[in-house]
Amino acid sequence: MTTAIQPRTLKTRARLIEAATAIVEDSSFTELRVEEVVRRAGVAKGTFFAHFKDKDALLDRMIGEIIDQHLDQIGAGAAPTSVDQIMVALTPLMTFIGSEREVFGVILRYSGATTVEEIGPIAATFERFVLVLSDWFIDGPFRQDADPATLAEGVQAFMFQALALNFCAINNQRSVHDRLRPYLELWLHPAKALDPQG
Amino acid sequence: MTTAIQPRTLKTRARLIEAATAIVEDSSFTELRVEEVVRRAGVAKGTFFAHFKDKDALLDRMIGEIIDQHLDQIGAGAAPTSVDQIMVALTPLMTFIGSEREVFGVILRYSGATTVEEIGPIAATFERFVLVLSDWFIDGPFRQDADPATLAEGVQAFMFQALALNFCAINNQRSVHDRLRPYLELWLHPAKALDPQG
DNA sequence: ATTCATTATTGACCGCGGTCAATTTTGTGT
DNA sequence: ACACAAAATTGACCGCGGTCAATAATGAAT
Q1: Which of A154-158, B111-115, B168-172 bottoms out in mean pLDDT, i.e. has the lowest?
Q2: Which PROSITE patterns match (chains A, B) (predicted)?
Q3: CA B15, B17, B20: angle at the middle one, nearest 5?
Q4: How many domains does chain B have?
Q5: At B1, is the pLDDT very low, low, confident or very high (cuts 50, 70, 90)?
Q6: Which of A105, A180, A190, B45 is the most exposed place for a label (fewest CB within 10 A)?
C-alpha cells in the first residue's frame, strides 16, 4: 500500500491558504476569488477543489480560525461581572463579524453543519462560544434561574440580532452596542429590570 | 412627456412572477433558475433583470408575500396569553421559514435593506412582525418591565436562533419547538422562572 | 399618418464557482 | 532500476447569475 497522505499535499494546501490570506489582507473576504487564489498559489483551478469542497469551505476555515483567536482572548480574561463588561469582552469578536457583509454571511451559512461528520470550523467555534460564556453564568452576578448554556445561547442570539439589524439601513442609526445592551440587561438581569432598586 | 409606465411592463412582470410561482410549486425555491423563469415566461434573459435587480429581488418579493400572509393570520387571531399559545401562533410562519435552506438564507440576507429607499418586502415584514407581536405584550400576562417592541425583537431573535440551530445537524435532535420554548419562557416570564409557584 | 423621444426587450457576452476525464507525480514492492 | 497502483494535479468545460450596446415597441405631439 502507498502513503495515505503525501507531503506534497500539505505543501499545496499551505500555499493555497497562504495565497488566500494574502488576498484578504490586500483587499477583503468579499473580493476573494478562487481564480485569484490559484493564480497566486501557482496551481490549477481543479487543485483548489481537490483541497476544499468549495469556496465557502476555505472561508469557513479562515474565518473560523479568526473567531477562535477571539475566543482565546475572551476565555483568557476574567469573567465579566456586569452587562457592560460582557459587551466590552465581546466587542472585538462582534467588530470582526460585523466588519464585512460577506463575513457575516459566511458565518450565518456555516454556523450550522449539514452532517454530523462535517462540523466545520465556524460551527465548532459557536459550540465553543456557548461553553466559554456558560462559565460566566455559573455563580456569576447574573440570573441563576436558568441553565447557563441556555443563557449563553441567548446572548449569541441577541448578538446576531443586533448585528443583523445593524446591517439594515432602516435602523442602523443606533450602534450595535446601544442595541445589544437593553437585550442583555433584560435577559441577564430580569429581577433588576423588574425592580431598578434591586 | 410620455406615460411613465407602460401596460406592457406590468404584463411582462406578471408573467415573470407567474412563471416563477409555477416553478416553485413544481419544485422549490432552491431549484428556481432565472433561465427557467424567462423560458416559461417567453421573454429574454435581459428582460428579467430589467424588472428585478437580481434573482434575490424576485425571491424577496415572493417570500415577502408569503410571510405577509402568515402575519395576516397571526394578527387576526386573539392575542396569546401564554408562551405555548405564542408558539402555536408562530408555528406556521416558522415552518415556512424553516422549510428550505434557500428560503432561510434569502430571509437572512434580505432581513436588512442596503439603503433606506430600498426597504424590501422581507425587511418590511420584519418591521411588521415586531408591530404585531408588540400588541401582545401591552397589558398581556407577560413581563411588563420592558418595552413591548424590545420583547418582540427578542422573540424574533430567539425564533431565528432556534431555526438556525435546527438547520445544524449537530443539534437538530430537539425540535424547533422544544428549543424555542425555554428561550421564550425565560424571556417573557422571568418572574415565573425565578419562582415556579408565582 | 408621421415623427420622435422614451421605455422595453433582446441575446451575445462575461465572471466566477464548480466538475471531471485525462495526465503526471509519488511511494512501494520486486 | 523498473513496474505499478494510488494519489495529486491539470485545464477545458459547464451552469448560471448578471451586463449592456443594439434594436424594437410605444404613445404623445403635430
Answers
A1: B111-115
A2: HTH_TETR_2
A3: 110
A4: 2
A5: very low
A6: B45
Look at residue A198 in the predicted model and tell me its pLDDT.
Answer: 35
Asked if B37 and B59 touch (Cβ cutoff 8 Å), the reply is no
Average pLDDT score over residue span A177-185: 94
Please tell me if residue B1 touches chain A, with a CB cutoff of 8 Å.
no
Q: Measured between alpha carbons, how far is residue B53 from residues B44, B49, B138 in Å? A: 15, 6, 39
CA of A50 and C1' of D8: distance in angstroms? 8
B161 in Cβ contact with A157 (< 8 Å)? yes
B85 shares its domain with B24: no
Q: Look up the protein residue whose alpha carbon has the minimum distance to the C1' of C25.
A: A8
Residue B84 sits in a domain of what CATH number? 1.10.357.10
In sequence order, which residues have a C-beta less than 8 Å from that of residue B104 and are 6 or more positions away? B97, B98, B163, B164, B167
Residue A68 belongs to what domain range? 54-194
- For residues B60-74, average pLDDT: 97
What number is the average pLDDT over the span A96-106? 92
